[in-house]
Amino acid sequence: MITYQEFRHQPLPKQIGLLYEHGACVMSIRYYGYKVNLYLLGNIYLEVFYNHKKDLIEKILPLDTGHSRMNFYADQIKLPVRIGA
C-alpha cells in the first residue's frame, strides 16, 4: 500500500482518486466552512477538506491527533491509539 510520503507527493486530483478508489470514508464532520471527511487509506488516516461555497476539495491532510477537531471524532468513533502516517 502507498505511504503518506508517496501520497502527499501526488497532485491533488490523483490524491482524490486514490482515496475514492482505495480508501474508506470513516465519518464526516462540519468544521467552520468545511465538511471534513475522515478517510482510512491503508493504515493512514486522512482528512479531506471540502469547501461548500467553492464546491471543491481544498486540501487533504494527515489526521492531526493533537488538533481540537479530534473532539468531534472522539464523540462518534473510537480511533486506534497509534495512527500511521
Specify the helix fraction band: 10-25%
Radius of gyration: 12 Å
Total count of strands? 4
Low-confidence segments: none
N-to-C terminal Cα separation, in Å? Answer: 12 Å
Count up the domains. Answer: 1
Overview of the molecule:
The protein is of the alpha+beta class and 85 residues long. The chain has one domain (4-74). It has 3 helices and 4 strands. It has helices spanning 4-8, 12-22, 70-74; strands at residues 24-31, 34-41, 44-51, 56-62. The protein has a 4-stranded antiparallel sheet with strand order 1-2-3-4, with helices on one face. β2 and β3 (44-51) form a beta hairpin. The radius of gyration is 12 Å and the shape is globular.
